[in-house]
Each structure stands twice: as structure tokens, then as C-alpha cells.
Request: fold
Amino acid sequence: MSDLERVAERALAAAADAGAHEAEAWCEESTSRQIRAYDGSVESLSDAGGRGIGLRVFHDGRGGYAYGTDLSDEGVAGLARTAVETARVADEDEHAGLPDELGTVEVDGLASPELGAWTTERKIELALEVERAARSQEGVTQVEDTVYSDSESRVALANSRGFSAAYEATAAWAYCSAFAGEGADLMTGLGVGLARDPAGLEAGAIGREAADRALALVGARQPESRRCPVVFDAFVAASFLGFIGGMLSADAVQRGRSLFADKEGEEIASRELRLADDATDPGGLASAPFDGEGSPARRTPLIEDGRLTTFLFDARTARKAGRATTGSATRGSYRSPPGVGTTNLVLDAGADSLDELVRRAGDGLLVTDVAGLHSGVNPVSGTFSVGATGRLIEGGELGSPVREITIASDLVSMLRSVRAVGSEGRWVPFGGSVNAAPLLLGEMSVSGA
Amino acid sequence: VSLVAPELAAKVIERALARGGDFGELYVEDRHGLAITLDDGRIERPQTGTERGAAVRVVLGDATYFGHVDGLAEADLLRVADSVAQAVRGGPRGAPALREPVAPGLHPVLRRPEEVESAVKAGLLRACDDTARAASGEVVQVTASYGENRRRVEIYNSDGRAAADDRTRVRLGVQVVARRDGRVETGHETRGGHAGFEILEERPEDVAASAARKALALLDAVDAPTGRMPVVVGNGFGGVLLHEAVGHGLEADAVQKRASVYAGKLGERIAEPFVTAYDDGAREGEWGSDGVDDEGTPTQRTTVIEDGRLASYLYDLLRAKKDDVVSTGNGRRESFRHLPVPRMTNTYFGTGDATPEDLIAGVEKGLYAVSFGGGQVEPATGDFVFGVSEGYLIENGKVTSPVRGATLIGNGLEALAAVDGLASDLSIATGYCGKAGQRVAAGVGQPHVRIRALTVGGTA
Reply:
């Protein structure tokens, strides 16, 4: 048993002493580094260590949560008393409580030993190389921000039903923000990479992506309004899919906050689109052997043959619906109690390249960035109007760059209009953790001047 | 009693500067929070948190070395100081002489929220639920949330600074969903401050009534118009447009990296001469106020736009030194886990002489954007997109039908230059601002403002 598991067990004992009927302790310890490069030098270097515990208790059907950074016996005992005290203010909830299905699965490759072998100097060199790759592209006028970051974390979860397990994970990521053009014509581009260790990051590709995305938009203007087919690149597809994934949470459904509430089993998308939630894919940074309350991790198909196969359930929402958990209790850190949500969303890639999707669009719009997604979508009706940036598509070829436009449709019409999924699937850190690919969609209303 | 004694702080800074550095700093924090939510008529998810931690920062030339740790034990502090020092390449410096920390400009807290019974807070949420549901049978869902937190911080640095602050914030938020036939609309309202529970003692249910009114009004909404038109933006939360589309571009880190359209424009005319704007972290009891910033600089009111001219950027210590000016008290951080960066506190337009009715009367056909559901801005260009959560048509100088689905699209510099009227009804609302992965309390505000022309993207 690890140190962290022992802390969790101590917290359970303290919760029982404080009078809790059921309790669950989530302990976490992490170290992380962040390197910011600017203009060929290190702008900042951060080194951080954190340890904390979150304790969830249930008492007479009432749930309470307390978290803290003090892992001493005294600290943990105080935390347990606070958690029980906090639970008293809650109303009774017959569905609340620990999960009935507890367990872990093997997920290989969550922690890479390679990360520990990298010195700080090598990581600095990687960050500088990302910056150089962006800065050296002709037409790039500034590289505003280049960040390399990594973390090693250990998590232990134990509950009063006898569950106790732990795991380790590593992650490394880098991003770069480059500018092209000057003054009012300045446009920005972002490059990103995600992996389990720095060896999995391609520094040159991340810097070039930032530069290419900015350069592609130089001279962007507001176009005339039109209705036309639209292509989303993988970044934009990920943002939309992440938003849709959030609305498949059974919690959103049960609270009447999802437009998919009455659509389980129904056709909501084109047959081209296959989407799953997968907590067992080691490439996805949200993977883990068990979910935020100790139910085993799994892969859950969400959209198959155009049909919505299931919502995402944790123990509480499953009990309320008379269903089984899908292992979808998620938690950001020990500082928050588990919620219901996606882990890694995985879109099945298709056969055609992005170029081919653009060719098939004929006359349309390639969207490379959207803004205001969370304020621009009505979560109940699904109608949306969001800001967009991208390139016009003219005769199957990329044409002039455009900005200050809005695209409007509704989410179900959009999902049903998917004509093809592109072949360039990749992990994108937008909309959560999403493995996304470009999408060719039917006509949307594009408003400009 | 200080969280960390000045003698220990001096020792930690000396260790952090063991291998050189122009500047060394210790930031320590003790934070405690409580959050309670009412959803579907039921109090759910009550939670509390208690954290203590420290951050050490060393600046050498243009490079910053940083580390943080959970816990305030001497061993924790020295370990993080040593780990930061390891990365520095230079000659050692001695320990600074440090006094007991001083806390200037504390904001009054008349009723400590921790001393108010949880049952009273739960009662507040139930009262909000009742008020919202009583507004109409069409109200189908109410979510009310109460949050309080207290952050005690101390900042010591190698220039001899020893500052402290004791910050208490309280906030109530209500979201109401109304339904008629197939139509569902949402209204939202908040009240909060850097203050104690006293700000929620007077008619807290007004917050719920306002949220309900917004949701119900939208049930009658027509589709938003599309195209360029005059826009009158509401007071209070309407100021988020200024915050996002202008304010971020005035933060000195963006300016110095030429990632702002306001770079090189100091002293230039960027708005009509009657336009003045401030960032004011000292405004008493306001949501975005503090006694000192997170580098120990006393907060102040900074005039950022004076009579239409760009008057000042917003600085923390690091960027101020680079521009050879003094910090404006805008070095803020979410917690000890973050580096301070230039951030707004409470940002708002100064008042004009007009009434909101005067501004509206001058519009033949336009949009009255009372509040926003959120927005996004590209700081480098100032391009913005805002979803209008409560909006109305203006027709022949009068406010007529509510509209839904309106989006404002534009550019900060252009919109600022197009401000052609300011009312006298300044108010400031509570927001959270995200930047560099950090979320801090920020006050946004303004009186009613008229913008000559802006692109409205509708659903029609």
C-alpha cells in the first residue's frame, strides 16, 4: 500500500469517528514543471509540488465534501469533522451514495518512465525549438507565447465499502501562439502537442503549426453573408464535440439542461459520425484505471449508426434512472467532488484527407477557429450562433481568409448534416480531451457584412 | 499573528537567492471557502476547502524562476526555495531585512460569513427559489448558489517589502429557466463583493427576481436582427465588453510583447473626448478590490483612458520595471500556485451626462444589449464575439421586443472609437476573469453606453 493509500485509509477512519455512515477519500500528489520561452530565452521556469485530499461523506442520505492540504493526523481528523458538518446543510437525496460497481481495469502506458530521464536543460531546449520553428517561418511577425509543461501525478482512492486503489500518470504538452501580419491585420495561430512524455512531442511540428495557422489567415476580411457547406478543422470539430459530450451527461439530462434529453436511442447524427467516450485509451490524457468514484474505466459508444446509444452515468444519476454507471464520474482534482462528464471523446476518423473534404465542399467555408461557443449555444434548443475565422472555399480550393463572421445552425441539424469525417485524427486539448478529425458538413448560415 | 514570521521569510528569500537573482519573493497564503448550491428545490453539494501554501519567485534579468508548495512548515518553504535557486545561474545575495507585514487599505467586513450559521445560508437559497418560482408558473427551474471565501496572504521580497492582506468575498448567484410550449429561456443574476455577509442581508431575493424577470422576458423574444446597427449597452455587467475588448489589451504583459493593438498608442486619441475609463482595485467593498495586490503593492485607481486619450497601461512589478514606471497594483494571482501577471481589478467607464432614455431616444433602429452571457476576445487584435443574454430591439427611439440569439461581433479599438454616448448610471457587477490559466475575481462595470455601429450576428 502506498503512502497516499494510507492517508486515504486514515481519512476513512476519521470520517467514521466523526459519525459518517459512508465515506470516500481521494488523495493526490503531483509534481509539475512549466517552461515559458520568449524571444530565444527562458522567460519563466516553474517547479511545483502539491498534495491534497478530498473527502466525501454521506450521512442520513445527505452528502458533504471537504478538501484540504493538511495530510497530518490532526489535519485529516479536522477535515472529517468539517465534511460531516457540511453534509448537515444538504437536503436528503435517496440516490446519493457510493457506487455499487467498484473496480479497476489495466490501462497500460499511463505513466512513462522516459519523463524522469529528461533533464530540465533538455526540456528548455525543446521549448526553445518550438519557438524557433514558429519564429523562423517567413511572415511570422511575433511569437507571443511558447509553453512546455509536464506533470507526474499519483492518485489514491479508497471508500468505506472496501475499495482501495491507486495509479500513477505522466503527461507532457506544449503549445505555441504565433502572429502574422501587423496592426489591425494581425492574425494569430495556435500549435499544440500532447503526449505522455517530452519524447512524444514534435517540437518543430508544434511551432510550424502555430505559424501556418496564423499565416493562412493574413489579410482576412469580413465576407458577404451566405449559406454554404462548411468544413471544420480538427480543432473546431473538437470544440463542438466537447460541447456535445457535455450535454450527454445524465446529470444535464436529468436536470432538463440537455437538448438530447428525450433522444436516447434516436437518430441524431449522420451515419458517417461515430463517437465514443474512452477512458482506456492511453493516448488520451483523461484515461485512468477507475473513474472519480472507483467504478472501473471503460469504452462507451455514444453515437453509432447515427443513433444516440446512451448517456453518461455516474452512480447517482444511474440509480435515479434505474441504469448502471458508465464509469463517468469525473473530477478535476481533490479540490472538487466528482461530477458527471466525458473522459476522452474519440471520433472515428474517416478515409478522406482535409484537402479532399475541401474539394468536396465546392464553394463553402473552412472554419479554423470558433469563439463564444459556450455563450452562443442554447443548451436546450441546440440553436447556436458563434463567431468564426477561417478561409473561404472556392471551386474546391482554399480561397481568401475571413474573419468577424458568425455561423448559425442547430446542433442536431449539424450532426445530421455530416457528409464525411476526415482522416487526420489527433488528440486536441479543446472541449476536454478529444481525439478529433476534420468534418465536412452541409449548409449553414454564415453571416458577415 | 503573521502566517510566516519575517525572520523565516528573510531566510527563505536568502536561500532562494543563493545562486543569484535581481529579485526574490515569498508569497504565502491561507485560504478557506464554502460553497452551497440549491438545484431543483434541493440543497446539494455543500463543500468546504482549506488550503495553505507558499510560492517562491526569483527574477534574474528577463527570466523568472518559480516554485510553489502545499503547506507552510519551515521545511516546505526551504525546500521550495532551494529548488528554485537550483535553476538560477549567478552569485549569491544576502538576506533582506524584513519587518512585520503591514496590511494597508483593508476592506470592511461587517459580518464575518464564517460566523453565520449554515442554515441561514441555506435559507437564503430557499428564499431565492421561492421568489423565482413565485414570479410565474412558467419558471421551471431555479439554481441558486452561495459562495464565500477568505484569503489571508503575506508577501515578502528582497526589496524589503512586507505586506499583508485579509480578503473576504461573498457572492450569491441565481439562474432561472422559464419554459412556454417548446421554448426554453434562461436568466442569470449575481450579487457579490469584497465584503462580509452584510451585502446579502438586504433583500437577497431581489437577485432571484431579477433572474426570473430576464428569463420570462425572453419567452416573448423575437429572433435577433442581423447587420450593422447602433447598439446601446446596459450598465453593470454590460461593462464586460470594455473588460474583454479593451482592458486585456491594456495589460502590460500583452503590450510589451506587442500582443496588443494598444502598444505604442500611449497619449493617442482612441475615443471621443468625453470618454474616460478606470481600473480601480481600491474601490471600497467592490468585487475586484483588494487591499494590496499579490505582489504587496497597494491597490489604486488608475485612469486608463482620459478624455479620449490612452493614459496608462496596467502594471505588475516586473513589467513596470521594464518600462521604468511604478506598478499600478495590478500584479494578481489566482492563488499561491500561480505567478502574478498584470490583471484588471474593477474596470469601468466614467459617467456622462445622459440618461439611458436619452441614449435610446437617439436610435432609429438598433439593439439594446442589457447583458451578456459571455464572450471571447482575441487580445492581440481586439476582435471579439459576445452572446447577448438579454437584449431588445430599439425602434424609433423606443425599446420594443426582446430578442434572443443576438451576438455582437467587432473589434475593441473600433468599438471604443464608436462610443458616442455615456449615461450617468454607473454600476459594477461581479465577474470571473480567466487569463494564463488563472481565474480571478474581477469587477466589470459602466454606465449605459451607446456605440454608433456594431455588427450584430443574429439567428434570423
Q: What stands out?
A: The longest strand of chain B covers residues 42-60. Chain B has a mean pLDDT of 94. The CA atoms of residues 365 and 395 of chain B lie 5 Å apart.
